Each structure stands twice: as C-alpha cells, then as structure tokens.
Amino acid sequence: MANLSATVRDLKVLVIDDNPVLLLYLYQLLKSHGISVAQSPDTDDLKEKIGAFLPDVILLDVILGNEIDGRQVCQMLSLDPDYYVTPVILISSYEIDGESVADSGAYGFIAKPFETHELLDLLKAAKESGTPKITAAEPVQD
Q1: How far is residue 46's CA from residue 30's CA, in Å, rounded to a whole number?
Q2: Per residue in 16-66, pLDDT tens?
Q3: Which domains does the chain have, with CATH numbers?
Q4: Sheet with 57-61: strands ordered across
Q5: Which residues does 5 contact at the CB level (< 8 Å), separation at least 6?
Q6: What Å distances lie between residue 15 and 98, 109, 136, 137, 139, CA to CA?
C-alpha cells in the first residue's frame, strides 16, 4: 500500500456527498494517503468551489438529496469549456446503469462500499488519463 500512497500523494480531490458520515470518512481516508481534500455536502456554488480549490479529480455522489442527480451535474460540467477537463468519478450505493454514467461525461464510477485500493487506483488513473470523460464504448481500464 505504501507504493500506492506514493503515487496518489499530491492529488487534489473535491468530494461532494450529502451523507456527513461518508463525507468525513472520505476526507480522513484520502488525507491519510497524502491527498489534499476539499469537501461539500451539496453542489451549491460548485463552479466557485472548483475554481477556488482547482481539484485534479472530483468525487461526486450520484444521489444528492431528493432533487439533485450527480449525473446531471457531471454532464453540465463536461459540457462547460471551463470545467470539462476535470475528471469526475461518480459514487453511489445504488445500482447505476453504466450507460448513464458514460452519458453523463464521468470518467468512471465506483460503488459504495468500495475497497480503499480500488478508489485510490481509480483516482490515480483519472488524474493520469488526460481524458476528461469516457464513453460507453471506452470503459476505464485498470
């Protein structure tokens, strides 16, 4: 695990999740691997948060409260020339259709609960990819 930690050190990750327990868990987990973390329980003023923190990767919950779908937020970001280059990884405890993830413009998806090494591998791959989004025909490879 030490080698993996060295490869993700210096990443900047913005975590957006409406579950305060998971938000705290992700904050502590990522910080313990040397990752700079900003967090938010919602997408209010999202573009300002991105502009202030300049994350390498965004972890975005698919279901945020009753009204906000993370896939729609991701799609909005992927279509914006100022923000499309920041890879978004969608996270959810619900079963999510892979096509809807690809259509959203997300780099990838990870299901809750997840293994730490899976999350860190995906964050590293997203940062190194240089590809802001995936399509249904081009899934993320480990």
Answers
A1: 20
A2: 999 999 999 999 999 999 999 999 999 999 999 999 999 999 999 999 887
A3: 2-129 (3.40.50.2300)
A4: 36-40, 12-16, 57-61, 88-92, 108-111
A5: 33, 34, 120
A6: 21, 14, 24, 27, 22
Q: Both tokens of residue 117?
A: 């090494």
Helical ranges in the chain per DSSP H: 2-8, 20-32, 46-53, 70-78, 98-104, 116-129
pLDDT of 96 above 90: no
Q: What is the CA radius of gyration of the chain?
A: 14
* Tokens encoding 65: 């409260």
Record the pTM. 0.84
Tell me the sheet residues that pair with 109. Answer: 90
What are the backbone dihedrals phi and psi of residue 127, each rounded to the nearest 5 degrees, phi first? -65, -40
Count of CB atoms situated within 10 Å of the CB of 113: 7
Rounded CA separation 59/15 (Å): 5
